[in-house]
Amino acid sequence: MAKERALRRAAREAEAAKLRAKRARLSARRQRRRAVVARLTPQRRRTGRLLARRSRGERAGIVIVTLVLLGLVWFLVDDVALRLVLTVLLLLCLPALVIVALGRRAG
Prior knowledge:
Elements: H1 2-40, H2 56-76, H3 80-102
Helix pairs in contact: 2-3
Organism: Asanoa iriomotensis
Protein name: DUF3040 family protein
Keywords: Membrane, Transmembrane, Transmembrane helix
């Protein structure tokens, strides 16, 4: 009777060892997969910058339109004092114009 119990216990221990080895292989495989995915996935970067709320295209549009307007002011207006006043006025009103044109987004 003791030999039978010993044989059954040995069989159970062998099955348990196989199961532990299989779980360890699966766990290692899962960890390797997570490491690869983490390495390949771009990191989400949080910035506190105001311009980060706008897409790259919107920011490019804002810069291009501003430069075009400044160019028009400096090419079409003859008086230097008026050029400076219009430049300062444009730069001061630019944030309000951007919000009106593109809308305010909830960050």
